[in-house]
Amino acid sequence: TSVVISFSEESLNKMQKLIYKAEILLESLPYIKNFYGKTIVIKYGGNAMISDELKENFALDIVMMKYIGINPVVVHGGGPQIDKTLKALGIKSKFVEGQRVTSKETIDVVEMVLGGKVNKEIVSLINRHGGNAVGITGKDGDLILAKRHKKVKHSPETDRPEIIDLGLVGEITKVNPGILETLDTGGFISVIAPIGRGENGETLNINADFVAAQIASALEAEKLILMTDTEGVKNQAGKLQSGLSRKNTSDMIRSKVIRDGMLPKVNCCLDALKSGVHKTHIIDGRVRHALLLEIFTAEGIGTQIVEKAKDLKPA
């Protein structure tokens, strides 16, 4: 006696969707195995911090990473939020070649916005989605020690270097990762505001990309991921480059294909690689679940920058 089982078209379509979901999970399995127990440092910024939908997606991505055994460490920016608060207080913002000149009046606002409002919003969002996040600044546990950054610019008028004082802007001298290691051991997700302690105890404002790169180096992270408002690094023809070696990247810098705002981000990646970080990524934070797509799929969504061309393989 044989039994004939028939399915309606609706049931078959539902079954196909379920099978597709299972295949997606299986595709991510090698990456979960590779990154289990590893640290991934993420610089969180740009539109991903402004759009409510993208903020929710980011928090979910971070929580999922933690639950499957990855140690995500988040470093966040907050430029637009700082600008908004300064404007509301009637304090004018001044920039020199894209860097904020930070006076004593301004640094108080920077610390309030980054270390208070923005940091705690991110922590609250991650925790609301089932995570266990703790917010800190670089001043906590002497995580980030820094000195005042003096920008040197060539003056055509005098034909001599001109030193530009950016005020309370910091250049990292040392990262003490002990507090991050303690938080990780306790099962917490670290969310870090890019503020450091100066040589005389003063608060210094530091570029979040630089902070993320230095922390990734200090933690010997598996990956450094910089979330931006662009697709990634593009070639002369404007085509996205999915993978670049140090040599490829250096050639593009020399030929000025990589320039302007992308240049410091790429240099952060190269510095991190030099310090032992295995792979670095520049991805488009405007894409939903950008982190999961970059980490757990073979294709990825942005630009992967590695030390040597042979490292340009999945994972």
Question: What does the model show?
Answer:
The chain is an alpha/beta fold and 315 residues long. Helix content is 40%, strand content 25%. It is built from nine helices and 14 strands. It has helices at 9-35, 52-67, 79-88, 104-128, 178-185, 208-218, 246-254, 262-274, 290-296, and strands at residues 39-44, 71-76, 95-96, 99-100, 133-137, 144-155, 160-175, 189-193, 195-197, 203-205, 223-228, 243-245, 279-284, 303-306. An eight-stranded mixed sheet has the order 5-8-2-1-11-13-14-12, sandwiched between helices. Helix 2 crosses helix 4 (104-128), helix 3 crosses helix 4 (104-128) and helix 6 packs parallel to helix 8. The chain is globular and about 70 Å long. The chain starts with 8 loop residues before the first helix and ends in a 9-residue tail after the last strand.
Q: What is the structure about, briefly put?
A:
With 315 residues, the chain is an alpha/beta fold.
Key attributes of the depicted protein:
315 residues, eight-stranded mixed β-sheet, 9 helices, two-stranded antiparallel sheet, globular, alpha/beta
Biggest sheet strand order reads 5-8-2-1-11-13-14-12
Outline the biggest β-sheet: 8 strands, mixed
Dominant shape: globular
Mean pLDDT: 89
The total beta strand count reads 14
Helix content: 40-55%
Count of helix runs: 9
Decide which structural class fits the backbone. alpha/beta
* Rg, alpha carbons: 22 Å
* Assembly category: single chain
What is the element string, with H for helices and E for strands?
A: HEHEHEEHEEEHEEEHEEHHEHE
Low confidence ranges: none
Strand content: 25-35%
Distance between the termini: 51 Å
